[in-house]
Every structure is written in structure tokens, then in C-alpha cells.
Design goal:
homodimer, 8-stranded mixed beta sheet, elongated
């Protein structure tokens, strides 16, 4: 019911607000204009003046009345304006705004539910990325491997990482370079790190590169994303291995790339002829040690692949994620080292060699692509942590990197051998192991294919969590197998896990035999 | 000239290779198979057997001859196979490969130049990203601000960052959480950090959010990229402010987004009507403190913007990069806090508050977008450093964050006031300062527009390096001005820099007056 216009209460509101309650304290640390602003705001917030016709005194009058300068008053008023408590009408002065912020807040609250229920609108890109699955419905991303969970694939033994050495080097480099490590830094990466990596890669991976070809990145996935975004237009084709590291497909989908899976044979990726529309602009491979099958790409296949890339103006992305952990002889030379036509984009990471949480990797780019890669990185997220980069540079140049690799190679080789021994003893009746020459994983093929679903369920239940090989397959239809990780667990843990698995399987057999017999 | 088939030398080569030079040392640390592999490889590398018809002895014969097991021989041979030194012909045994790796290397060398000269093929995306320019042809990305260079815009005082405290907290958290911080971690970000940020943002930015709405990212650019990739399809439109933070346009281009610049007036971004094809799916704004003009978005404009977003099914990206450094009163409440329809994507960074090298930022996502953001992050580069995240969580919960902000606000306010005093005294005849209520920068408008090119050149020469305002403009045609950074320099440095600029300008005036007079 509208109130009659003549009510005295209404008339009082229309009058000029006097702000009699305001108390300014000239001895306080808070500046006068802030005190004024705060107290006026509290008055206005009370809602007594919220009908839009209450006028404020002029700044001159307010200043005189409160004994402060006009600029103090203006500062307070401009803030109240900005926050929506006041509005100005030209020629008529300043009024209390029709809609006070708090009122607005309450009013809008009512619309919340209706508006939020509108279905979420996400881009096609989000939908195009395959969901992150895990071999056993277990989120590796969140925990690496949770307590009581074992034999998960691709997990390095981070408890062996010499974190104390790392922190000591970090302190040294911080003491030496100081605030220079706190600023924005190069999009390419730390120059000392690029030099150290170039030397390492030339010596130990037979790469042929100059430090200026190296771009430091935040791990293997960013290396892939930057490369894909730099050389492929959305909708163009990349070939990947099938089976393949699951993140590869997700990263390439994010880049808007069409992903075509290619099978693996004993020599590596099969470069069969394709219809012209499926010819690749990039071919993703793991030549040192195919993930997850463990095949080392043959020399013949390497040269065929490079010829193919050259002839089709394509790039080869060499993911050299764990070449360092080769148990049979020294690591094979990289593809990058035998590429003389600038077609190989080489990428490595310290996630497996040192630990994943450093979030550091590197690209060795063909010279003519370096600028494009750096440009993408600078637009994407600027650069990696300068402190971590400088620490890694020191870790390499002072010899800790090589000695850690050497030490871990020995530990992993022992664990691999122990795993093989124990596995064959305890589970040799059900699986045939494929002995890997490198890496952190072992493929175990089922002798009785029909046991697959049972084993998958039981491994998931008992916390011994190899990935089903099929988890890494796109179109490949391989015989059933599981990929076990052996690297992150001690002998005791390995033996205990395998005993647990073997007895769970035996129990299941007995129960189902019993079940069958009693029926 | 082909050699006659009957030459004795040829016949000798066709015979079985005996590897007489091989010396195996049973006491060496190097395994026998590695010694065998290495020495056989050296023999083969010598090139004496490289014509493709030299056959190897059987593994049985070789094993017997050298007194080693057949498995030792097989390991060595398989490696030589993999590396391309050997090839097998079914039924005929093992031969020296036609093309030895080293031969291949040399042969290919000749093709290098021709192949590399092919023009670099980079994606359209790379070309679409505007080049990274700087206000004064000076690469901020590489150095922040080099020695002897001053008054660069947007540089925080990293020398005031309490790095010793940070490192102490880091050591504490490492001691407490140990190897758990070395593994892969959550794509969303550290849960303690998300809780600490949610509490901070609700208390000090008047945000309304739950820790589950927070996604930790590697800085503001990644926040933008993830948001753009999550809600826009390639080719769809985003509005940005004009003038604008230059990286915004680059990030959105990387996401394949069409960027439409919108002018700024005294209330903030102007939401004028647009042709339907230019309607935005995302609107990028800096409401607390427009970069670089410093305008605070009015309350009316905020509500208009949110209404517009709701009515057009668009999202507002609120870049709240330096709201903490407000000198007039407490920071204004965020847009996010008054959005009740899930249309605001709020993003912050510690690059200005703490220091850029931490590479940490955060998104407060509308609830229905959180999963999409996390999915994009997991495909992009997994997650940020768990150690740095945990350290930041502790830095916030133990009160260092707030006390650092408070301390820096005081330092910056003093530097701002000192800059204004000195600037007006020394350069007041040429510039009119626009006093900022917040942030690290001050806009100085030219009184004599024709001096622009001269001042631009001179600032570049003498190492006092404000950015030309035009550098941040896309279509906006503003009066000539420079954006000075005052935050990262001491009083002495500020005064010295302004004296240097004033006297360089005076010298230039005198020289050109003199030149004119003498002509």
C-alpha cells in the first residue's frame, strides 16, 4: 500500500542528511578521509536513507561542519560513489543511491537458484578431452600411490630422491643470486640450466643440440602441448602409438588436434600408409622404450620414421621420459641425434629421474621452431620457477644428477630382478612376464585369458594395483595383460604385495571351485 | 668401379667374423654382456665389416668361444640389433647391417642444409598471437627490470619479500610431509591452500566461495587460458578492456578466441550494444583497479555488467591482480561476491602480492565450471609444485600473508606519495599525474602532446623506462601518456631517476633551442 506523500516521516527523509553521528579522531592512525568514508558508509548501510531522494550536504558544507579539508571529504565521497552508495544528478547534488549494495545483495539472492540451474556451458574442447581414467579406478594424479597401495605403474621411488641435497643447493643458489630469482624470468628458461642440459643430452643421449635449442617447460605434458600448438593447426592430424601413455591423447585433444592411433610391432610404431586426410603433421613416439609395451625402436624403423617425416613435412615428437633407466647397457642414442633435417622435437622430464613434484621438463627444438615454442610458452604461463631451474642447473653441474641416475638404475635393476623372481615363483602359473630392458614397469600377460575380469577386480580390491594393458589401448586389441610398476617399492613391499595377490587369487579359485562343487 | 667378385679380400669379408680382439674381464664391475656388447660394437664401428655380407658366428659358437653363457651373448646381440649394427636373415643367420649407424650419420649430414632451409612451418595459432612487445623495446620477461633500469610499470618490490621466512616454512612443511610432497599431486591444488585462500578471499575480498570452488594455477595467465579454453569454443568472442594488460590478448589468442576491445570510461568497461556476431561469451575486466588507467568500476557498472552476462549467457573474468594494494580505504569488494548467478570467474595471483617467481595463482570458479577447469589443468600440465603450494598455505595460515600485504601497502603508499611529490616538482611542467587509489603504477599525461616521441626516445636511452600508454591500447585513441611504475624503487632511486629524466629532457630542449637558434 503506497504511503501518502504528505507523511512527515517522508518529508524528513527528503531533507539533507547531516551525518551527526560522525566522530573523527585526529590522533588515530587511520586517515581522516578513511574515518569519514567508513562512518558515512555505516550510516548509509543502516538503510535509513535508502529511498533515493535523500540528498547529501555539499562537500564544502560537510567539510566546514566536520572541520576537515574539502579534499578529505572528496576522497570519502568518491569512494562511496565507486562502491555504489551514492549517485549524482547534474545540477541537483549528490543523493543516496536507489539501490544500496547490501540491498542489491539480498535482492539478487532470490534469483540464485533459477539462474544456477541453467545447464553448465563448457566448450567443446572440454568435452573432446578423454576423461582421465586410471587403470583401476584409482586417481594417481591425486596421490601418486596412496598408503597401502602398491605396484602401480610408472611411479618412481621418490623416497630415494636426495631432497636434503636439493634443498642445500637451493639455499646456496638463493644466497648467491638473491632477489634475481624472485623476479619474472626468461620464457626460454634459465641459461645455466639450458647449458647443463645440452651438455648432458649430448653426452648421454647422443643428442646434437645447442643450449639455445632448449626450452625449459613444466613437464612432459606441457612439452607436448607447446609442440602441438606450435606446429599443428586445430583439426590437423597427429599420430600416436597404440597403446600409449594416456595423457598424450588428452594433451593433443586439448590442442584441438585429430589423434590417429598407430599400432606397435616388435620394431616400434608401424608407419603404414594412410589416406591423405589422415597423414600426420606430428608423430608422437617413445623410441627408447615404448610405453607401456617396452619395445625399443629398431634402427631401421628410426630411419624409416625420419624419412617419412621428412617426406611428409611432419615432425616427430620424441618422448624420452625414462631412457635413463636402462638396465641392459647404456641408454640408446636418441632419435634427435640422428635427425639431420630438423624434424625431431625431443622432450625429456625430471619427473621419473628425480621426482614429479619439481614440475620441470625440457624440449630440444629444431632451430627454426625455437621462437614459436618460446612465444607459446610466454603466452601460456610465462616460465617455470626460476629458483627450481637454478637449483636443477646446480644439481646437474655438480654431478648429483648423474650419480643419482646411476644409483637409481642400480636400485631399479635390483627391484626388477627381485620382482621377476618373486613374481614367477608366486604367480608364474597365471602370467608370463615380458622382461623389460628399461623403465619402471613390467608387462605380465595372462596365461588364461578368461581370468582377466577376476584379476582386475581382485587387484582393485586388495590394493595391489597394476593397470590393465587395455587401459592404454585406443584401437589396439591386445591379449589381456597387466602393467605392474616395481620401482617405487622395496623388496619387502614387493614380496608382500605379490603374496597378497597370489593368495587372493588362490582363495578366489577355491571359493569358486567350492561354489561349483556345492551347486 | 665395381670390384671383381673373386678378389680374395672380398672372400675374407664374407667369412664368419671371429671377434678375436674381444677381452672379457670377469673381475670388472661392468657385466659381461655389456663388455661383450661394447667391444663387438667397437669392432663393427671400425667399418671393416660393413658391406652387409659379413656373417656373425652363432650365439652358441660365440658363447663357447668366449667362455660365457648363451644368454650373455644373446643380451649383447639383441642390443646390437636394436641399435642397427646387425640384421637377421631368417635361416641364414645374423649379418653386419648394410648401413651402420655411424655411416648413416655421415651420409645424412649432406642433406642437412637443403632440408633445413625449408621454411619453418608453424601453426596459425603462433602467428595469431600478437608479438610480445614492451613499452620501450625492453624485455621485461627476461629480467623484470635490469640493473640501472627504473620506474618500469607493474614491477613489485621483490626485495621486500620475506624469502627467509618462506624458506623456513618450506623446510618445516618438508619435514612434516616428507615424500608426500615429492609425488604427483591433486590437479585442483593443495587442499590446505584452497581452504586458506577461500577464508582470505571471503574475509578480505568479500568473495563468496567454498574451498572446492578454488583451482590453484600457475599464475594469472594460466587462469585466463584455462578459463577461456573451458568456456569458449575457438572462434567465439571475448571482450577485453582497451587499454588492457597486454598478455590478456595474447593468452586469448592462444585459446583461439576472437578478441573484441571495449573502451573504458570513468565507471569502467563500456558495455555498449554490439552486433550479434560480436556478442561475448566471456568479458575480461579488472574492476578493482583497471589496468593501466586505474579506474575503479562503479557499483552501477558492476550490476549492469552482471545483468548483461546473465542475459547473454556470458561469463565475466574478474582479474583481481593487485586489489590488495589499495591506498584509499580497504579494498573494494570483488565482483565475485555480488554475483549470485554463477557468471563470475574470479582470478588472483601472488605475483604482485608476494613475488612473480612463485608462479602461483588461483581461480574461484562458479561451481558448475570447476570440473571443466580441473580437467583442462590435468591435460595441460597436471598441477603446480606441491611444495610451493603447501608453503603458501602455511604462509597464509600463520599470518605472514596478511602482515606482508599490510607492510607492502604502507611502503607502496609512501613511495607513491614520494613519487608524486618529486615528479610534480621536477616534471610538473610537462606532465599531469593521475593519482591512483591503488596499484603499482601511475599514469602521467603529457601537457604538450608533441613531446611524446622525444620523451619516448629519451626514457629508453637513459634507462628510466615507463611504458607508453599507447602500448596497452588496441583501438583506443587516448591522449599521449606514460605509465610509470613506482613500487619497486626506493626513495633515493625514485628521486635519482626523476632527476635524470628531468635533466635529460632539459638538455634536449636546450640543444634543440640552440640548434634552432644557430640555424
Amino acid at each position: 500500500m503506497p504511503k501518502p506523500k504528505s507523511r512527515p516521516q517522508k518529508r524528513r527523509r527528503r531533507s539533507i542528511i547531516t551525518f551527526e553521528m560522525i566522530q573523527l579522531d585526529r590522533t588515530a592512525a587511520e586517515p581522516l578521509h578513511e574515518q569519514l568514508y567508513r562512518q558515512m558508509r555505516d550510516e548509509l548501510k543502516s538503510g535509513r536513507f535508502s529511498d533515493g531522494s535523500s540528498r547529501l550536504p555539499s562537500s564544502r558544507a560537510l567539510a566546514a561542519d566536520r572541520g576537515v579539508s574539502r579534499s578529505t571529504v572528496r576522497l570519502a565521497l568518491s569512494k562511496l560513489h565507486a562502491e555504489g552508495y551514492l549517485s549524482s544528478k547534474t545540477g541537483s547534488g549528490t543523493f543516496v543511491a536507489n539501490l544500496l549494495p547490501e540491498t542489491f545483495l539480498t535482492a539478487n539472492q532470490l534469483q540464485t537458484d533459477e539462474s544456477i540451474q541453467r545447464p553448465a556451458r563448457v566448450s567443446n574442447r572440454v568435452k573432446a578431452i578423454p576423461d582421465k581414467r586410471t587403470g583401476n579406478q584409482f586417481d594417481l594424479g591425486a596421490t601418486g600411490a596412496g598408503p597401502g597401495v602398491s605396484l602401480v605403474a610408472s611411479i618412481p621411488a621418490v623416497d630415494e630422491f636426495p631432497i636434503a641435497v636439493w634443498e642445500r643447493l637451493r639455499a646456496q643458489i638463493l644466497a648467491k643470486k638473491g632477489v634475481n630469482l624472485l623476479r619474472y624470468s626468461s620464457n626460454r628458461g634459465d641459461v645455466d640450466l639450458r647449458k647443463a642440459l645440452a651438455a648432458y643430452l649430448c653426452d648421454f643421449r647422443a643428442a646434437r643440440c645447442h643450449p639455445d635449442q632448449i626450452v625449459i617447460v613444466a613437464g612432459m605434458q606441457q612439452a607436448m602441448l607447446i609442440s602441438a600448438m606450435s606446429v599443428l593447426n586445430p583439426g590437423e592430424t597427429a599420430w600416436i602409438e597404440d597403446p600409449c601413455y594416456q595423457q598424450t591423447r588428452r594433451v593433443l585433444s586439448l590442442a584441438g588436434v585429430k589423434v590417429v592411433p598407430k599400432p606397435i610391432d616388435a620394431q616400434g610404431i608401424v608407419i603404414a600408409r594412410s589416406p591423405k586426410e589422415l597423414l600426420p603433421k606430428m608423430i608422437y613416439v617413445t623410441p627408447s622404450h615404448q610405453f607401456p609395451l617396452g619395445v625399443t625402436m629398431s634402427f631401421q624403423r628410426r630411419t624409416d620414421l625420419l624419412d617419412f617425416a621428412r617426406n611428409h613435412n611432419a615432425f616427430v615428437f620424441e618422448d624420452d621420459y625414462d631412457a635413463e633407466f636402462r638396465f641392459v647397457g647404456p641408454p640408446l642414442p636418441s632419435l634427435q641425434g640422428i635427425d639431420t633435417a630438423g624434424r625431431v622435437i625431443y622432450a625429456g622430464t625430471v619427473s621419473k629421474i628425480l621426482c614429479p613434484s619439481l614440475r620441470l621438463g625440457y624440449i630440444v627444438a629444431p632451430e627454426h621452431l625455437v621462437d614459436a615454442f618460446v612465444k607459446i610458452r610466454s603466452a601460456m604461463d610465462q616460465h617455470s620457477s626460476p629458483i627450481e631451474q637454478a637449483t636443477l642447473a646446480r644439481f646437474i653441474t655438480e654431478g648429483f644428477f648423474l650419480s643419482h641416475i646411476k644409483r637409481m638404475r642400480k636400485i631399479y635393476a635390483e627391484r626388477r630382478d627381485f620382482f621377476i623372481d618373486q613374481f614367477n615363483e608366486l604367480l608364474g602359473d597365471r602370467f608370463t612376464l615380458q622382461i623389460p630392458e628399461a623403465g619402471l614397469n613390467i608387462v605380465a600377460w595372462l596365461k588364461h585369458e578368461e581370468e582377466f575380469e577376476t584379476i582386475k577386480r581382485i587387484t582393485s580390491e586388495i590394493g595391489v594395483r597394476p593397470s590393465a594393458l587395455s587401459f592404454f589401448c585406443i584401437q589396439a586389441n591386445l591379449k589381456p595383460a597387466f602393467v605392474f610398476g616395481f620401482a617405487a617399492w622395496t623388496r619387502t613391499q614387493i614380496r608382500e604385495s605379490l603374496i597378497r595377490l597370489a593368495s587372493a587369487l588362490r582363495n578366489h579359485d577355491q571359493n569358486s571351485n567350492h561354489g561349483r562343487q556345492s551347486r
